[in-house]
Amino acid sequence: MRTIFSAALLSLLAVGSTDAQTAGPDDTGTDDIVVTGEKSRRTVQETTTSVAVVTPARIRQENIQTIQDVYNRTANVGETYGAAGFTIRGINNAGVGGGGQADTATVYVDGAPIPGSALFGGPTDLWDIGQIEILRGPQSTIQGLNALAGAVVLTTRDASTTETSADARVLWSDQRDRTFSAALGGPIVADQLGIRLSAERRNDRGLIRNVTLGGYDDALRTLSLRGKLKWTPLALPGLEVQASYQRARRDGGYLYDNARTDVADFYDRRISTGNVRGRGRVEADIAVLNTGYDILPRLRLSSVTSFNRVSSHALADGDGGPVDSQRIDNLYRFRTWTQEVRLNYDGPRLSGVVGGWAYRRAGGLDANNRLNIATPVTSIVAQLRGSGFPATAATGLADRYAAALPRIPVAYTGAQPQLVRTAAFFADARYRVTDRLSLIAGVRLDHEENRYAAQALARFTGTLPDPATFGAPGTAPFLAVTAINRGVLALVANAASQGAGKTRRFDALLPKAGISIDWTSGLTTAISVQRAYRSGGSSANPARGLLVPYDPEYSWNYEASLRSRWFGGRLTLNANAFYVDWSAQQTNVFFGSSAYDYNTVNAGSSHLTGFEVEASGRVASGVEAYASLGHVRTRFDRFTVPSGSTTSLDLTGSEFPYAARWTLAGGVDARAGSIVGNVNASYRSAVFTETGVMQGSRRLPGRTIVNARIGRDVRDWTLFVFARNLFDAQYEQYTFQSGDRAILGDPQTFGLGAELHL
Fold first, then answer.
1. Does residue 204 contact residue 173 with C-beta atoms inside 8 Å?
2. Chain Cα centroid distance, residue 344
3. 363: closest CA among 98, 113, 600, 586?
4. N or C terminus of the chain: which is more exposed, having fewer CB within 10 Å?
5. Are 458 and 410 in contact (CB under 8 A)?
6. What phi and psi, each to the nearest 5 degrees, are found at residue 190?
7. What is the mean pLDDT of residues 252-281?
């Protein structure tokens, strides 16, 4: 296979270059990159928020295919395990304590917020993308809901009313992964009405061969279709209307796919033995209407309306073996509507935005699972001691019972409908006091109402131990086991609930303030402070069939930023440093009857510190380089559980899961005539996959991934070869406690590609 790729590369380089483009690589400077995620149009150098921007040029140069690729090549950002989630500054997008319904970071596609349950395969493909912005640090003042850690903003390529264009791409890899992409657009009515249509199809055979069922657990098929219209009527100068619709379908493996690690050469021979084919199916439909009107030369009125309907079906083998003992079958369905109206002003001294925002999300979870609950030996011993058994006899009888019934098999079906409604007013402004000094201020008044309900049915599906095997009828052991059996059935029955629901209401005041100083035309510093918010709600206790309320969590965030240009603009160097004080964190705690006797409480307080540094510049004619460095330290300062909790795990002193202390990434783009190339690398230091004092045993070592691409770029077309994980770094993204299964990183992959841009 490598011989084939070597021959392909030589054929590319051997072609004459008489038609070669003579332009250098795409400019990586930031003067012309406009950040829109903060609801105002500012360049990167004018934006004090720590923002990483990925342009179409970089996506093309690095052959970036998924949003997870972007996470792993961005300072202080990374994926968790598989494509199940991501972290920003060490904060998991679903929270760090395992509790709570709200996210801490949200992914937006053309202004539409995507539910976290769909991010492992939702509408986040990167074909025909206009720009990706990762806003690190709280966006609660601007974005409001679910933005305590930050936000990811994807903007797809707009339609044009003036130019016709066509784009196509084919990717093929030695891992039998095929991707076909196309886009076409241009004016329908010159200078007034334009359209753009795009499509992408991906077929991936997969890597993990299932030796029980045959085939591959992680086989993947995706389809993305998108249409956009742009209307700028000449009869109404200053009016711009854009409408878009996207349909995305993903049918593949579970949120993550694991391979056996108890076989030889498991990195190269990836197998699984589950008897249930893990599947992850996502269906997403997104519609957005974006209208803007220039009332005055410096005053613009905008309206953004979005609707998305997303469902994700996750099916997995809970035990990973050939016996059908545990099964996870969860269906999430959500419909989300948002409406935002804002007024932007960009004057010589005052600039900013004021607006109103409304949000409604309805949907929830339907579960149909088969679970195994570890027999609660400690509880049985306590029950026997309370009935008069001596300690030794109670322990011996409990151990014999657990040997006869080591797991309590349960069929669990449930529904957890949710309804979240939010209304908010927000404002964010800058006032230039002098030519150098500017004041920054913002505020958000947020009102949320959420209703959460839980209905469940639990049924014991096993065989209870026969009391007669423990003693003759009427004897103490016989009667004790009979009572334990009743307790087991009661434990299962207690997990049932009759659809109880709770409505919670919250109001949050989220201020922001700061100052910015332009020391020179190429050097700016700023400091700011703002409050961030994650809403409260109600939590279902699976074992007790109860809904338990919990409160919001808040953080105060202190940040300093540097924006600079050096050597006549050839080098850009930007940096942000931060300190976060986080209180009332939502954490799951346990209450003793079983492993499913838990619910969310406000138990944690923590802090985190760190920085990001990003640089880019022209090294020589035809050569540009870029690099980023991120550092974060996270720590739980206090962990206070309520009375009645049996949680023995104290998070005090532990770090957040998947909070890498160091992230480093960089790359070089080069052009020599028609030959173009890129090499890039990313490093993530060791991470803990769990929290608590024992997290040292749940540590994954650091890893470095190197990627490369080289090809020939001539006028409208490009042919190239690429390598992902060039040096075949072998690493695990998560190791299951059983020790014989793990989520493995992607292996070394070589591929061929062709692009056409007309």
1. no
2. 30
3. 113
4. N
5. yes
6. -50, 130
7. 92
Please state, for a pLDDT cut of 90, what percent of the chain lies above it: 72
Tens digits of per-residue pLDDT, 97-140?
Answer: 888 889 999 999 999 999 888 888 778 889 999 999 999 999 88
Tell me the residue type at 127: W
Classify 477 as helix, strand or coil. Answer: helix
Percent above pLDDT 70 for the chain: 94
Are 401 and 484 in contact by the 8 Å Cβ rule? The answer is yes
Interatomic CA distance for residues 330 and 635, integer angstroms: 33
Distance CA 755, CA 180 (A): 10
The type of residue at 730 is Q
Element (H, E) at 627: strand 623-639
pTM of the model: 0.90
Which pLDDT value is given to residue 121? 79
Residue range 421-446: average pLDDT? 96
CB 503 within 8 A of CB 536: no
Residues 267-278: what's their mean pLDDT? 92
543-573 burial string, b = 16+ CB within 10 Å, else e? bbbebbebebbbbebebbbbbbbeeeeebbb
Distance (Å, whole) CA 113 – CA 358: 12
Determine whether 415 is exposed, middle or buried from the number of CB atoms within 10 Å of its CB (0-12, 13-18, 19+). middle
pLDDT reading at 18 higher than 80 = no
Closest Cα to residue 663, out of 11, 20, 52, 117? 52
| Cα distance between residue 593 and residue 413, in whole Å | 20
